[in-house]
Amino acid sequence: MAWILLLFAGLLEIVWAFTMKQSEGFTQIVPSIITLVTMIGSFALLSISMRTLPLGTAYTVWTGIGAVGAFIVGIAFLGEQLSAVRILAAVLIVSGLILMKISSTH
């Protein structure tokens, strides 16, 4: 169950990163509210998952999901650059997430 909560925490991190960008420095009210609500939800789910998962594993997976997800959203919706080096960086992050999951005893 902790892994499922952690996955949803990471997905909410992607949402709040995207809406934070859309908030234009918290000057746009709707994206700002969505950012704050999803941040709270993301942190809450992360903290619940940390009841059973090790700190290093939970935090690394959470930030990794957010980083790779934000990378994909940036390319898909914001027209950000796609290059071989950026793809390699994302692949390395995902590899690290897989290794963290494999090495976890929970």
From TrEMBL:
Signal peptide: none annotated. It comes from the Bacteria. It holds the Pfam family Multi_Drug_Res. It is a multi-pass membrane protein. Keywords: Cell membrane, Membrane, Transmembrane, Transmembrane helix, Transport. InterPro entries: EmrE-like, Small_drug/metabolite_transptr, Small_multidrug_res. One of its GO terms (biological process) is xenobiotic detoxification by transmembrane export across the plasma membrane. The chain crosses the membrane at residues 27-46, 58-78, 84-102. Belongs to the drug/metabolite transporter (DMT) superfamily. Small multidrug resistance (SMR) (TC 2.A.7.1) family. Gdx/SugE subfamily. PANTHER family: GUANIDINIUM EXPORTER, SMR FAMILY PROTON-DEPENDENT DRUG EFFLUX TRANSPORTER SUGE. This is Guanidinium exporter.
